[in-house]
Design a protein that fits this description.
The chain is an alpha/beta fold. Helices cover 33% and strands 10% of the residues. It is built from eleven helices and six strands. InterPro entries: AB_hydrolase_fold, Lipase_EstA/Esterase_EstB.
């Protein structure tokens, strides 16, 4: 689930400020030259080279279809974004860092409507799971691998479980980590029962469904989730590492992000970021850029690393 990261008023102020900067000269009592608008400035070649080098460094090996797994890192990573996001935007922090750590890393953008740019994860999750199945098969073929690691955020912690349970993903996924996880849906601060009590749930759903079939699937007690969680919320043979935050503003209550099977399945574990670091205040969106979450997942993928993740791991 992915909402606007910036207040519209703040965004508008930023646009107005940028416009004023480009349209007005830099204040100076003794200007040495006329002001040149940004759109007309000519930058030295060295600046372009420096920028390109920084860009390549930040995304080295990320989404590289020529990547081949190594003996030490035999499983490529497939990143699965959240509702309303897309593969590149959601994983601009995690993707390059896992690539620099030696993994073949790939992102999928799924559930996208042709007439809605940038926003994805909107189609019903059964269809998106089929897209994921095809994508994973391509990754396995291209990297000459037998199983992948999954990393999901928000809807990406939910939709792939349909792939695991119904579309054969159980035999193609070794480990599955998630941040901002939603296992039993969100009550949205009890908005769902409130709308139901007013008789507005179904009318609003009819309006939203043409634009976002998955939106109501992520809600607590949705038919999709009841079916998905029936008989257990994990599948045998796959290791799970689900991370939640007490300050998640979109998954309410945050405990709905827990895998109940973790109580009996030794391959499943629930992690609360505040148990790793009491000072952590990550919310739903900020977990996408959390060094703490990154290091926790990296240790989950590589058990030879130090497993004692703490506040010091919040800095990289």
């Amino acid at each position: 689930m992915h909402l606007f990261k910036t207040s519209p008023l703040v965004a508008l102020a930023a646009v107005l400020l940028a416009s004023s900067i480009q349209a007005s000269p830099v204040p100076s009592s003794n200007p040495v030259s006329e002001y040149v608008p940004l759109s007309e400035r000519i930058f030295p070649e060295a600046d372009y080279i420096k920028h390109e080098a920084l860009h390549k460094r930040s995304s080295a090996g990320y989404n590289d279809w020529g990547c081949r797994v190594s003996a030490k890192k035999p499983n490529p990573i497939v990143f699965v974004h959240g509702l309303g996001s897309n593969g590149l935007e959601n994983w601009q922090y995690f993707g390059p860092r896992f690539a620099l750590a030696g993994y073949c890393t790939f992102t999928i953008t799924y559930g996208q409507y042709k007439n809605i740019p940038l926003l994805a994860g909107l189609d019903k999750m059964e269809n998106s799971a089929a897209e994921l199945s095809t994508f994973v098969d391509r990754v396995l073929t291209q990297t000459n691998s037998t199983k992948v690691f999954l990393v999901g955020h928000s809807e990406g912690s939910m939709m792939p479980r349909y792939y695991l349970k119904y579309l054969g993903g159980q035999t193609k996924v070794a480990k599955y980590a998630a941040i901002g996880s939603i296992v039993y849906g969100s009550s949205l601060y009890n908005l769902v029962p409130f709308l139901t009590g007013l008789g507005l749930y179904d009318p609003i759903k009819k309006i939203v469904d043409p634009l976002c079939l998955s939106c109501f699937q992520v809600l607590q007690d949705s038919p999709f989730l009841k079916d998905l969680n029936e008989g257990g919320d994990t599948v045998p043979g796959v290791e799970y590492h689900y991370i939640v935050s007490k300050y998640d503003e979109l998954v309410t209550p945050y405990t709905n992000g827990f895998l109940k099977d973790a109580a009996t399945n030794p391959l499943a574990e629930n992690i609360v970021t505040q148990s790793l670091c009491p000072l952590n205040v990550d919310g739903h969106i900020s977990q996408m850029f959390s060094p703490l979450a990154f290091n926790s997942i990296r240790a989950f993928f590589d058990r030879s690393l130090n497993q004692n993740i703490n506040c010091l791991d919040s800095v990289w």
